[in-house]
């Protein structure tokens, strides 16, 4: 499947590694540096500060050099100005990059805010399309939705479009670039729509695109779970290569749009339920007291949604209206209805809190088996509103998890980034970079099909992200597992944090999670470069735990004794192995035997030849012959206490060699 094509950032030549140009001469003419601010020559280096202060265009930075050259300035002054210009342009590029990233995050948070206070679906979708167009700098942005009844897809919202034909397009499934995105559930980008043969062109679609004048198009899927419900697009009327960051940004907007659509559907169901109750009021006037109570709770629930209330607010409101004890539980319930109806289990009524086939939990009304139909419906609608609030909270939480993961990835991959910027990003996430931390590598060690393994990794990352957020740390999905960066609290050690983390994650996932920890590292604010080697150390510790049969446990390098020193240091492990059992390894290689395996079985069986022969499924005489061969290779004293300890350690290190070299 082709990946979206990208191009280098236009600011690449003005980044922090760009050549700043020749520096000013230490012998520069003092006449050019002593002028007062009001009568300073236009070609002074300070002129670049003024350009930066007023946000001048890049072209304006050439003017001081040109004026100095026209005024006959000497080579040293010109060289100083050139250096000042390069430095100023670097600062300008960095400021622009920060403003751009801040604008992207601000737009995402504003979109999440709009979603939390959702009133008008069209208004939210228009805001998403407009913000996507503005941040990507595209001439046109638009959003299409699938029509399951008609079996096609249609334009829902456009921004920047001038063609009525284009705005009214309906596409059959699988047609055009949008059809390819919807079919594969992956983003696609084309630099030149009419020259791209990866998707099926049709006369109607090509006519609409030509009428709009579009050339470059980027499309990302709108997905609810595994279902694609539409596509979000950004397009230009000229050839253009969309960058990876822009593809990811548009994907974030698409995720918000999908949640907005799903949320609107839930709100629509709630409004429909209110209408249904109003009609029932005319039929059962003798039950006016019950109806008034139902109306009250629905009004309160609607108010809770509009003012951004939480799940506990819903529980308290429903408890008060129904005159009983209502609880929200995330634990699986023995009997819940798939269609959202409340069911009676013993003396308790239970209504599932779910959306899109996913069950978040349940609302349980305790000890009221004689619940009338209207109050039962109230409990069901409360469960529906609860699912709406949980979806909104999840959307905001996932955005924060991604930001935390990106910061940790930057600490590992590019530790030489500007420290001030790293600290600023950490402060926005309430992460304390001024205290010692520990790096942990976590993994679910169990054989599973690839699709289940991916699900395990995602669940582990979600649980680790929550743990990191509550502990003022960071978490990221990486290298087939999860990496965490957690601060050390008073009395903590790297080993205690590893054990506690393995216990917490295992309890959340309800299956064993193995956690390897590095030694404690100094405050990241003082030394961000220490995080990457600490992560490598934690991964080696994680692999060592698996090889030692300690899956599902948490441990740190420092508590593995001599083995921990070997893991945490750059000692001559291979030299030690070669000196101790190298002759046995070499013999196996030459003769195709397995004396190493025999030694491993011998030590694992308590140095008992009888138990060793059972483990190897050979005759005891065969075991004896192999051990005699080992004695001839290593010496007759190889089973003495001191020698056997060295042999066992070298054997273990040899078997762990792949993990120790990573």
From the spread of the alpha carbons, the general shape counts as globular
Q: What's the arrangement of strands in the largest beta sheet?
A: 3-2-1-6-5-4
Give helix % range. 40-55%
Low-confidence stretches: 1-43
Gyration radius (Cα, Å) is 33 Å
DSSP, total strands: 15
Number of helices: 22
Oligomer: single chain
Straight-line N-to-C gap: 31 Å
Mean pLDDT: 78
Model description:
A hairpin with a 2-residue loop joins strand 8 (343-345) and strand 9. The two termini are 31 Å apart. It contains 22 helices and 15 strands. Residues 1-43 have low confidence and may be disordered. Helix 2 runs antiparallel to helix 3 (75-116), helix 18 packs across helix 19 (609-616) and helix 19 crosses helix 20 (620-634). By secondary structure, the chain is of the alpha+beta class. The strands form three sheets. A six-stranded antiparallel sheet has the order 3-2-1-6-5-4, sandwiched between helices. A five-stranded mixed sheet has the order 12-13-11-14-15.
